[in-house]
Amino acid sequence: MLIRKREPWDLPSSEITPESVYLNRRAFLGAMAVGAAGTIGSVSGVAAAKGVRQEKLTPYEDVTTYNNFYEFGQGKDDPARNAQDFRTEPWTVAIEGHCAKPGKYDLLEFLQPYEMEDRVYRLRCVEAWSMVIPWRGFELRKLIDRAEPTSQAKFVEFTTLFDPERMPYQKTPILDWPYVEGLRMDEARHRLTMMVTGLYGKELPNQNGAPLRLIVPWKYGFKSIKSIVKLRFVDKQPVSTWERANRGEYGFYSNVNPEVDHPRWSQARERRIGEFQRRPTLMFNGYDEVASLYAGMDLRKNY
User: Which of 79, 82, 251, 254 has its CB 3.0 to 4.6 Å from that of 67, i.e. a possible disulfide?
Assistant: First the structure.
């Protein structure tokens, strides 16, 4: 008998979305989150039983009101205020590049093959703040397997929606729009890397990257691109948006490395949102299982 080991980030997976909920996009997305709702009603209860390293979950109000999402403003409270009327219907996701099965899909069609699961991951931002959040989604490697990338595919490039009427700060030159991120193929295929559709038992809020975002929990938060409309399999390392904006401060790999300070502040300690006292920053954000991906690399140079 094969016994599956329960991982530290796992939440109960007994409630897989049934086929009966695939009636329309909103019902489907709502049903994907409801499996977590009963479990996540008590923050302390879930944290003690299923949390990452037994850590306390960041309150939902903080998770949804303290955000980096420059398409809706540069202040931490701007996205929650400015994204309220952001329309996520209709929404399509394109799969392009070096793969056997490219295509362009309505979001519901895109999500249908995947069973959603709940995981508690830390999110660590380069400004030295962090959160512990119960996410809902599926492993990116399942999507990769479905697309059947060819041997030429060495990286996955992700692109955010570009629509200045719906994302008003794209009318400003804050960044070179649209937002682009990338992962090496082995990073993208790691079991921790997750495509997210919800959090805290609810549909993903606009300010948190609705309707589809990426989570790479051992990297700084700017790698976790929001409101994704395209994934492209490429043979060369993509130039990410923040790397293009300031290569000296934002490297492509952006692995959480407390020994490499940001030029304008220390990364050695972090403040968990909702707490006053700072704590030491953990290498790879505490996810030691990814260390083998970077064996032989200089993580001070490839920060």
Answer: 79
Q: What are phi and psi of 280, to 5 degrees?
A: -65, 140
Half-sphere exposure of 66 (CA within 13 A, CB side): 19
Instruction: Read off the pLDDT of each residue in 257-263 and give the average, rounded to a whole number.
Output: 90
Asked if 204 and 213 touch (Cβ cutoff 8 Å), the reply is: yes
Reported as a single tens digit per residue, the pLDDT across 102-115 is 999 999 999 999 99
Give the Cα separation of 198 and 29 in Å (integer).
8
On whether residue 198 sits in a domain, the answer given is yes
pLDDT for 53 equals 52
**Model pLDDT for residues 17-27, shown as the tens digit of each residue:** 333 333 344 55
Q: Which of helix, strand or coil describes residue 52?
A: helix
Which H or E run includes 109?
helix 107-111
Give residue for tokens 């306390």: 56
Domain CATH for 143: 3.90.420.10
DSSP lists the bridge partners of residue 215 as 194
Listed residue (29, 71, 59) closest to 226, CA to CA: 71
192 Cβ contact list (under 8 Å, min separation 6) = 9, 121, 216, 217, 218, 287, 289, 290
Q: What Å distances lie between residue 165 and 87, 196, 225, 230, CA to CA? A: 10, 24, 20, 19
Q: Which residues contact 19 (CB under 8 A, 6 or more apart)?
A: none
Residue 12 located in a structural domain: no
Residue 191 above 50 pLDDT?
yes
Reading the block at residue 41, the tokens are 């009603």
Report yes or no on 75 lying in a domain. yes
Q: How far apart are CA 208 and CA 187, in angstroms?
A: 22
Say whether pLDDT at 49 is over 50: no
Whether the predicted pLDDT of 126 surpasses 50: yes
